[in-house]
Amino acid sequence: MLELPVTALHLYALNTPERTIMTLKTGFAYHPGYLNHDTGPGHPERPDRLRASLAALQQSDVWDQLHLIEPTPASVEQIVYAHNSAYPEHIRLHCEQEIPLTYDTPVGFESFDIALLSTGGVLRAADAVMTGEVKNAFAMVRPPGHHATSGQSMGFCLFNNIAVAARYLQREHSVGKVAIVDWDVHHGNGTQDIFYEDESVFFFSIHQSPLYPGTGSSRERGSGKAYGTTLNVPMPAGSGDDEYVKVFTDVLVPALRDFSSEFLLISAGFDAHYLDPLSGTELTADGFATLTDLMLELAEETASGHVVSALEGGYSLKGVSESVVAHVERLA
């Protein structure tokens, strides 16, 4: 197919008898520098997660359908859209001295710069969608982000990539309401914390309970004017595709339709996969594909199809790689 500049799309359509319209591709943001975040031997959040997922994508039929997006680092000023002003320096000092941020969140000398690049990958994906360069995008980044609160790193996470992206869309792209859907098996406590009193951001988390970090009760609904814009659905161990799809269909889709966001962000953790060593849920790659379909259909209704997903957890190499492929195939 003839590749045209996006700016010429409508002009071309109007002046072509067949009304042929170019099909935009799905964006894929990835940087080899993500592999240099050193978590040490035996840590579940390891570079092999991305190596396996990238290899699976490159061997799949979807690879040639992707538009590659080159990440650039987020600025410290952009990081503090979602974190307090002292937080980036706290992270930088720990990384320079290679002092773990918490017992489960080790860092190396390069980790600060890589974390900026991780957040930047999600921001560049958002840019590409907003400018019409791509129809939607997946950012395969690490370190992940959804456990990082405004002032505390935890759960393998340094900067909250999705939260910064939501604020970035609002501040630099004049987006009004943003919805965040988090299907990582662990509750996205950091994202919830950041937006708990913000009525312009809807946060949904479906997660195994009880499980780390112990938050995410259905009673946690937001605060003040933002009451009702936080929606948690804890799931028991053993829950699988059917149970998750029912929650999305019966609970999430109506709530998102009512909220009517202008942009949908997905914290795409794949550790609810039945092979994952850190969870007890039973999702399959096909299940994640169905969840993706439901979110794409909803985004077409309310958000002009604007969707960016970012990798969070997923610690079985087979589980995360086949789930990433299934997710990206549906995006594309």
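The record above closes out task 2.4. Task 2.5 opens with a second protein, given below.
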Amino acid sequence: MADMKFAATCLFGLEKFVGETIDSLGYKRLETIEGRVYFEGDESAVARCNVNFRCAEKLYIILDEFDAMTFDALFEGVKAIEWEKYIEKYDAFPVKGHCIKSTLHSVPDCQRIIKKAIVERLYSAHKTKVLPESETKIQIEFFILRDRAAIMIDTSGAPLYKRGYRKDTNDAPIRETLAAALCMIARPRCDVLFWDPLCGSGTIPIEAAMILKNIAPGINRSFAAEEFKFLDKTIWDKARLEARENEVDTPFEVWGSDIDEEVIEIAKKNALSAGVSGCVNFFVQDVKDISTHSKRGTVVCNPPYGERLMDINEAERLYRVMGKAMATLENWQIYVITSDEYFEKHFARRADKKRKLYNGMLKCTYYQYYKNQKTCKK
């Protein structure tokens, strides 16, 4: 099969990491916009990217792109696609998508037009007037941005942050894709202790351990495209074998602690499911008691924001406790993500660097503290 065009979607702010993975896999980046990276590759990219993406949410095959300022233009553009190459007579093909800053702004109307165009094309191609949609599901997705339509097939199925290891969670879990990005920014190293002292169900320490062991995040889950008949089935075995061969077994220290004994037990189970149970030390401890004799270390944490866990006043009190406790970690680097705009004031230190990220739809800041920390003026 000739080279395809792909779109990898991600949370805003994570495009850099998605692009770097595309580069490392040997594919050609074409364009990056907010929340989306476009690239070219052969059909092996469907398997290799789904298995290896740490920070992407979905991987789509782009079938065509065209201008669509009217429903007629949308209908004709979709109908011109050779759908019979992708959708067999009994396959299901639901349609969903988004319209952004475009003349065609009604998503339900666009869904209806696209579905109708595909049906008419398949009626003719398969020489039938009945499409049962009873077998393999081929999820069609459209993305209309500034009157330019991209018609795509979802290859991932369940979002890529669903690694498969997190069987249980606490009440406000961080997405695995965002947790991986927080770790990558903090650069976990084999000779530096990595610690999340508010670890909840363990996502951040688990993602750090997977990075250090170079475990492909999608190695133990399935993907929608594994059922697609138009793709070579062998690409999946090859991608997983390649990922297994790239794993490393270098010793390192990753810790996760939390005041809640119940969530620590959940974290241990999740680590076991992720294949890193022997690599992460989970234990019960209040963050106010944080201390270590290690000369070098990195703290990465996602404390409650006062949105779903705690109220805002409780969250602010926690930030003050964290600031006082972490001031004892001389020569450590500290990374904290929160939506609180006044975090530095409560933490009592000005960050050396700040980065805007999104936790789902919630705008957050990733506060980064290095060795020489300045006291924040009150």
